[in-house]
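Hi F.,

I've been meaning to write this up properly since the lab meeting, where we talked about keeping a consistent format for the predictions we share between groups. The idea is simple: the sequence comes first, exactly as it goes in, then the structure tokens exactly as they come out, then a line or two of notes. No screenshots and no reformatting. I'm using this chain as the first example so we have something concrete to point to.
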Amino acid sequence: MVGVFLFFLFFTLLCLLIAFPTHEATTPWWVKIVTQTPYCTYYFGPFDSVQEAKQTQSGYVEDLKQEGAKGITIFISQEQPATLTICEEES
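Output, unedited:
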């Protein structure tokens, strides 16, 4: 009897996982690039998949390098930016 209960519990959980899309499938991906000089954070996106975001990141980095940016760090995430460009004001 316990085996039947466990089977139905497993089957129910499996159906729920299939029926409802995962967080990854519904939340867009963003390329986040932080530069040290100037000290800025740039967001590029949204993208439908992490693969799409990774394919485009080199173009953004190249553009920033041509503009003189240094100390470039790249992140791929599903965080939703409130602002696409954030730069520390020069004093």
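Notes:
The helical segments are 2-19, 23-26, 50-66.
The two ends are 73 Å apart (CA to CA).

If this format works for you, I'll send the rest the same way.

G.
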